[in-house]
Amino acid sequence: MYSIVFFDAIHYKVKEGGKVVSKAAYTCLGIDNAGKKDVLGLWVGESEGANFWLKVCTELSNRGVKDILIACIDGLKGLPDAIRSMFPDVKIQLCVIHMIRNSIRFIPTKHSKEFVADLKTIYGATTKELAELNLERLKEKWDDRYPLAMKPWIANWENLSTFFEFPQPIRRIIYTTNAVECLHRQFRKVTKNKAVFPTDDALFKMLFLAVRDISKKWTMPHREWKAVVSHLALGIWRKAWFRNRLK
């Protein structure tokens, strides 16, 4: 059983049918109950969607992943429903940092600093209730001018606000997919001299070997894990049903 898993994608150029195309490599990184990291899977080249993610989650289950407490994801289409279908008690948290980046694309430079500062009143709020109040204020201020920037926050609020259910040590880990993005930055160092891969399989093999080497250094638990696991085990927040699943 994994306390937290992170899903994210990294893109590479691959030859296919005589052309060079951009393909995604999807990574699932888990943190177990001891706070140790583990790459649970790599998938290259397939288009994301409900069927693909159901296949991925089924594969994880078949490999021995019996339960996931919290899944932290980027806006990967079809993934939340697929995770819930296989692990029905999971909590989904969308990456707040990705959401900020996506929103900024629709804001003119002259307003971007002010908009980002306003967004911080949402994800930096101490409670979900305060965050929702600030979200309404932002909606009133910006929605008429830049509806495309505000729409994702409103439409995805349920999965964006999950981290407010937890104490700060857990919030700091799950509000972003930074853990798996750090792994992807290490992938870039390994693949930097390879502009184009000849096949999906060639890309997969290089990433697989990179994981094998990188994971040898993962000998210590997450630096805040003692605080995290005590909160999870004790269930000191109002959603206390986690504690029995940690046994």
UniProtKB/TrEMBL annotation:
A Pfam family assignment: Transposase_mut
UniProt-recorded Gene Ontology molecular function terms: DNA binding; transposase activity
Biological processes per GO annotation: DNA transposition
Positions of transmembrane segments: none
Keyword set, alphabetical order: DNA recombination, DNA-binding, Transposable element, Transposition
Signal peptide span: none
Domain of life (superkingdom): Bacteria
Keyword DNA-binding recorded: yes
Function, in words: Required for the transposition of the insertion element.
Homology family: Belongs to the transposase mutator family.
Protein's name according to its UniProt entry: Mutator family transposase
Organism: Parachlamydia acanthamoebae (strain UV7)
